[in-house]
Amino acid sequence: MGSIGTQNASVDEVDVLIIGAGPAGLMMANWLSRLSIRTRIVDKRGTKIFNGQADGLQCRTLEIFDSFDFAHRVWRESNHMLEICLWNPPSDMDPEKPSVVRSDRIPDTIPDISRFQQVVLHQGRIERFFLDSIKENSIRTSCNGKGAEGEIHVEHGVLPTSFAFDETKAEDADAYPIEVRVRHLTDEESKPAQKATSANGTAVQDGIFRSNLAADDTAELIKRSGALDAKAGREETIRAKYMLGADGAHSWVRQQLGFSLQGDSTDYIWGVLDIIPITDFPDIRMRCAIHSASSGSVMVIPRENKLVRLYIQLTTTNSEGGAKLDRSQITPETIIASAQRIMRPYTITYKYLDWWTAYQIGRGSAIPSHYENGMNVSMQDAYNLGWKIAGCVKKRWSRDVLKTYQSERRRIAQDLIDFDHRFSRLFSGRPAKDVMDEEGISPAVFKEAFVKGNMFASGIAVDYGASLIVAKSGDSAEQGDGTKVMLADQASRVVSKQEFATEIKVGMRMPSFKVLNQADARPWHLQELLKSNGTWRVIVFPGDIRRPELKQKLNGLGQKLAESKSFLHRYTPAQEGFDSVIELLAVHAAPRHEVTIFDFPEVFRHFDSNNGHDYNKIYVDDESYHEGTAHAYEKYGVDPSVGAAVILRPDQYVSWVGAMDDFESLQKFFAGFMLEASAEVQNSEQRAHELAMEVHGATGNGVTDAVAKGGDNVVAVRQADTVVNGAL
Amino acid sequence: MGSIGTQNASVDEVDVLIIGAGPAGLMMANWLSRLSIRTRIVDKRGTKIFNGQADGLQCRTLEIFDSFDFAHRVWRESNHMLEICLWNPPSDMDPEKPSVVRSDRIPDTIPDISRFQQVVLHQGRIERFFLDSIKENSIRTSCNGKGAEGEIHVEHGVLPTSFAFDETKAEDADAYPIEVRVRHLTDEESKPAQKATSANGTAVQDGIFRSNLAADDTAELIKRSGALDAKAGREETIRAKYMLGADGAHSWVRQQLGFSLQGDSTDYIWGVLDIIPITDFPDIRMRCAIHSASSGSVMVIPRENKLVRLYIQLTTTNSEGGAKLDRSQITPETIIASAQRIMRPYTITYKYLDWWTAYQIGRGSAIPSHYENGMNVSMQDAYNLGWKIAGCVKKRWSRDVLKTYQSERRRIAQDLIDFDHRFSRLFSGRPAKDVMDEEGISPAVFKEAFVKGNMFASGIAVDYGASLIVAKSGDSAEQGDGTKVMLADQASRVVSKQEFATEIKVGMRMPSFKVLNQADARPWHLQELLKSNGTWRVIVFPGDIRRPELKQKLNGLGQKLAESKSFLHRYTPAQEGFDSVIELLAVHAAPRHEVTIFDFPEVFRHFDSNNGHDYNKIYVDDESYHEGTAHAYEKYGVDPSVGAAVILRPDQYVSWVGAMDDFESLQKFFAGFMLEASAEVQNSEQRAHELAMEVHGATGNGVTDAVAKGGDNVVAVRQADTVVNGAL
């Protein structure tokens, strides 16, 4: 799709405009490229980043990457962190001989919470995987997005200069109420301010004072594209149905919306070194928290290749909180000297320095936890929002679904801030000298915080509150951020019966255990079946279908599902695949050898006159030849003599749990927000809009605070009264 | 490296010339690209193949692919076969109602023999992965191979027209005794004969009578490159130190060497259909062997996507063995009709036909087993040979090592033929009616053959005989193909003490179990540490090094290894990495938490003044956080209170097993064939040549037979008296 000539040659219309091509913006573009949404993504930077910026990737982030088919690339290239080692002063320490000893070890990722474990990989590679995925998706879907070849591609060196929102078009689903003017920058303009120094013959990136309030402006090692100048100075108008701000803490989008950000006063200074260490410290390839008695703390994060990131508490702390320090005070040499004091009696030095910086941060906010979580949370924000917007653009569901973005993600942001505060007090504090030392932090308390923090940091603990797409009991406002996200009509509310599947928690992501394909006996992690392709899923657990009463229920359900008025059909456009909007899967508990797919109603093994049966919808919880038995029913808390059914959102979160044959609840749930795929689309949309909820602007303290903490963040804009603003 | 202007502009000199770019040729090119050997690879075909030619990939082939870092691509794209279902007439069959029932199920891959299981993927994708790997390797190693960009790339549409071997240069390691003249073909000339028919609107590849004697000449769906004509008619002379013939059963290379091939007479006809089946047969996604009472047999091979390959015994068999059938007699329709008769009462048909063919094959040779093994064996031939040639080119070891190619691989070829014969008798025969029916094949006998065949078909059972690089007791000629491959000097012979590691069998490939990196606790399959990079490896199993006597032995060994006269140093050129020729690894059995890498002598954790210690050489057999405990010592048959040491070849085969501190045997073993990396290289080579063995030409019946069976095959040529000829 080229430029639209409605007014002049420099006006383009797209469904979604994304501002910012960091991990959050790329996550969004990736979603939209999968779902064939007309999208443009612009970034003021001249190119993607290429090194530095190493980040821990949460288990949940890897699960999401896997749903987009590139987790294996991260898994292969990243450094896997398996163990956290806690180092503290020995209890019998001679005060004249400062030293640290290993006081404890804990697993870096809590066993069994995910099929992935936390890994570290630099952001440049993650951006690469997104870019490759976007390209593949664009080719595969023949997407009518922007670009000479019909592809979505990141437009670098493009700066938004003005923003207008036409409120008169806000309620028109086919209108483009958003208008953004952009200017193409020169190569020079699009290069972030940076200063290259040199150590040991290697160009070194000096990112000094890259505080968390200026993330996008501080230095990264940028490879200059050199190709921007040809377009430089060109101006263009882009009209969009939706706009995403994923342009960081100094967000231009936020400024346009009038959200102001405040930073905390600063009083701690931390240095960061990415080095190839030369050391006799035995745990340099482990994640370590090293607390010296009086010289401060070091966090060790082993990276890919031979690199290690050290977060080092600087003893040159300026006593006047908030005052700017003279940058000449802090150098890689002063930072490593601090590490050397803290890590005594071990020695540590380096010849190769990859990147360094120093932070002045707010009281009660620790860099390490922030750093590992910020990118993950912002990508997960975009992951939460992408499918919702795509469904609105395609008129598959009501725009009310969008409001759940705010209610779900602002809560996560607040949790992250709380975690940051708690954790940083412990990390920056002085270790207790003995049990009588009440001001110091005892190793036991610190370890407990680490263990608890690990669950939070995995991203697996996220639990979304009740809404029109999470059929949970209780008060939705209390469970979220206060936004009203329930159907106005209480009689339409569907509530789960959690007891049918006690470990498939409504509001949380679907846990993954191995099941076997009935037709070919291949084991799959259940999550591998839940690719991010925009479809909702109903998974029926019919139990041991050798039991006549269960077989009868299964057949009865099959009959209802097959009817044309069933939710399985009424929301699916005739020209699209039978499973393109809602996919039906089954996991049964009879022995694999005693049944075949033909024991299931045809709706579970869709027949196509050209391609025969679909062999990829029916699975079984049974022993595999090479990978043991997962005992999926047991782990999901489903009784094989009773069964269960669940609804999963396109992002793998659990919407509903109930009886295996509760067709009525399934039908009612989808009727709450889905739009009919028929001539009555307009009427249905109208009906859905009648159920519309009041929406609160995102101006609470929580979000301001969160934004202040966040690096990247995602803001979704559609119209004045439905600003959907997810924090972080 | 461009053309050499020694005589005229059209003469080029390379270390290795490869004729044929099928899987075997590509395997060789891939090896050589990794090892920076100047290589050209030419193929008379205009392009790689793009569909059809689906092949099962053996466990061992996947292990090899993993050693080249692309097994994961195969694993993701291929169809995984988990179960073999055997179908036979029911014992109480009504003769008026022909039918088959599932009589048994067996695992497709024997559990626990490998970390991979057999999968199916079409050859075009496998060629793609090789081509990508060769490109990556060429870039990474800055290889001085052929190509405008210094890369090794396949030169398509290039036909060798003459061959000359200069015997006067045969003993000069720096000479190019082989001279081959090649002609660049037109696009039309380079397109194999093929005939496209049409069914259901889809272009269909008709490969009828693609017998196993004419594999390369029969049809494949070729995408025409259209770019060859510009060079067409150009002639060129290529001089090489070594030449590889990987140009199939009608090998031009073999013709040049005077090896003639004879085919068997033919009397069975099988049809092959690649279709998307429309069927109610419940096991269509399993590998099935279906024997009807009197209508013949069907083999089902489920493929990637929705495709299934059917091998169908045609009941239109011509009674006169060997006579050519009129091709109009066999069509996809007649083939599927046979399948329908055999598979009654189940129905099977198709609308999409991807490819089909029919074979007239020799008595006692079954297509299915041949098909699944031919490509694997030819790739494994090339895998066996590649590192040996590279080491000779680099003057790392004596050319005597090359002779082991013939002794090792011809034995495998004979085994394959024997297997083919046995298996096909069973598969083509009629099922026994009852226990009194002695002419029929009983289901129990057939099942037993399948189970035994599975071990053979995995590629894991390969067991190379004693040679100068396999320190095994016994008669090397008897264990191989008769070739003399031992050192002439019996006093130099080293013999393993298998009892130190009872399950690390000398002559077989190193089994793989998980061990943890001591420095970061990450679990690795041991084979993942054995990448194909041309290095030999010594793995020391020092046992539980908390035991003082073991710690003392370890330290003693470390001291000897560190000396400059140690095998670890004397064969390694000063300008190359310390572990580039022989890599030292350790797997200990003390609890991971009770030791660190600093409990090991420095030679196990090489220190570099720029990059610090090497953290990737010391592993431990201990419990992992997320993947259980592998019990590697137990599975390797190593006593943790005794320890062991092993030598592995660059292809992961076990050369030697002995005591953990038996430095003298290690030293002696390598002295048998390694060349000193010093000024005395010439002298050492001389010494090695004094030990040279007699070499037999490869003209035995075994090899002729094998070639007649084989599709691809590999022939290595160096000089008249050292023709190294591996069969298949």
TrEMBL record, chains A, B:
GO MF assignments: FAD binding; oxidoreductase activity, acting on paired donors, with incorporation or reduction of molecular oxygen, NAD(P)H as one donor, and incorporation of one atom of oxygen
Pfam family, one: Phe_hydrox_dim
Domain spans labelled Phenol hydroxylase-like C-terminal dimerisation: 462-677
Domain called FAD-binding: residue spans: 13-419
InterPro entries with a match to the protein in the record: FAD-bd, FAD/NAD-bd_sf, Phe_hydrox_C_dim_dom, PHOX_C_sf, RIFMO-like, Thioredoxin-like_sf
Keywords: FAD, Flavoprotein, Monooxygenase, Oxidoreductase
SUPFAM superfamilies on file: FAD-linked reductases, C-terminal domain, FAD/NAD(P)-binding domain, Thioredoxin-like
Similarity comment: family membership: Belongs to the PheA/TfdB FAD monooxygenase family.
Protein name as annotated: Phenol 2-monooxygenase
Organism expressing this protein natively: Cyphellophora attinorum
